[in-house]
Design a protein that fits this description.
This protein has a domain of 34 residues. The protein has 2 helices and 4 strands; from the N terminus they run αββαββ. It is of the alpha/beta class and 64 residues long. It starts with 8 loop residues before the first helix and ends with a strand.
């Protein structure tokens, strides 16, 4: 990809899905560190991790 190019939404979704599949197929714990706000998809990713470390004042939010 050339600098400044952005993938369309479908490419981004496929890329994100494959990255998550690879992360959760690991045989080692998946650790998330949250320092601030994790909303929607970010909160979902955090919920699927084996261990979550959150900074003071950080929180998760579901936009629905």
């Amino acid at each position: 990809m050339v600098a400044g190019d952005r993938p369309d939404g479908a490419d981004l979704s496929l890329s994100t899905a494959s990255s998550l599949e690879r992360a959760f197929a690991l045989e080692i714990p998946v650790i998330a560190a949250v320092n601030g706000l994790a909303v929607g998809g970010g909160a979902s990713i955090v919920a699927l991790c084996d261990l979550v470390l959150m900074g003071e004042g950080s929180y998760l939010q579901d936009p629905m």
